[in-house]
Amino acid sequence: MVILRPCLIALLCTGASAASAACASLVTSVCPDASADDTSTPRFIRLPPRPPAFAEGEVFPVQDYSLLMNPERYGLPPVDGPWRYYQVDHEVFRVDNATQRVLEVVTDGNRLMIR
How many domains does the chain have? Predict the structure, then answer.
């Protein structure tokens, strides 16, 4: 941390124009042009929610994805039947052991932080 502090201070103290100072992003390519109307606040793009990778009733390829161990760690109820939790990116699915069909989409990809 001590080594990074001078680099961070130097980065923050570099000359920045008034237009870039009003920008909410470190990436200047997404900042508004200085000639544009500068009376508005910084803008953010809202993305529509993405559909889950698998819908309820679809066959889930269990061999391609990770079985979620210790669901209590993520605030999920324990497994209490012939089904298991599987993880796909930041989404969790409840999958039947016998049929390998999705029983429930447990998360929508935004509410559960899985490492």
Answer: 1
